[in-house]
Amino acid sequence: MSVVWFLLLWGFVGYMLYTKWQRMRGFERKRTIAAMKEPRFIFSVGFLFGGFFLTSVAGIFQSGIVYLIGMLCMVIGAVVLAVLNWRKNRSFSYFLLAIVGLVSFVTLFG
């Protein structure tokens, strides 16, 4: 059953990304690729999505180590994102750090 949810979730995300990519113009694609190569994107959004992917893969294979690595990636990505957005939106940063703390607590002691 977890394989079905995995395929539905990541298939939907992949479909949405593909359709958005097809609608972009050439200069928008170049700008998107340039933004995705920046360390700011990699260490925030990249780690969040990578960690989420690893935790969903760990659910399929029942691997505790892969799950912890995924959770660690998500925590790093969320903390970096909160620090980067601190000046723009402090309430979002507080909320994000609270969620990270709660998820980390539940993962470690749950």
How helical, in percent, are the residues?
A: over 70%
The largest sheet is: none
Share of residues in strands: under 5%
Integer average pLDDT: 88
Give the tally of structural domains.
1
- Unreliable runs, pLDDT <50, ≥5 residues? none
Q: How many beta-strand runs?
A: 0
What is the terminal separation in angstroms?
23 Å
- Element-level helix/strand string: HHHHH
Keywords: Membrane, Transmembrane, Transmembrane helix
Organism: Caryophanon tenue
Protein name: DUF3325 domain-containing protein
Transmembrane segments: 6-21, 41-59, 65-84, 91-109
Description:
Helices cover 88% and strands 0% of the residues. The chain is mostly helical and 110 residues long. It has one domain. The longest helix is centred in the middle third of the chain and has 23 residues, at 39-61. It is flat and about 50 Å long. The two termini are 23 Å apart. Keywords: Membrane, Transmembrane, Transmembrane helix. It comes from Caryophanon tenue.
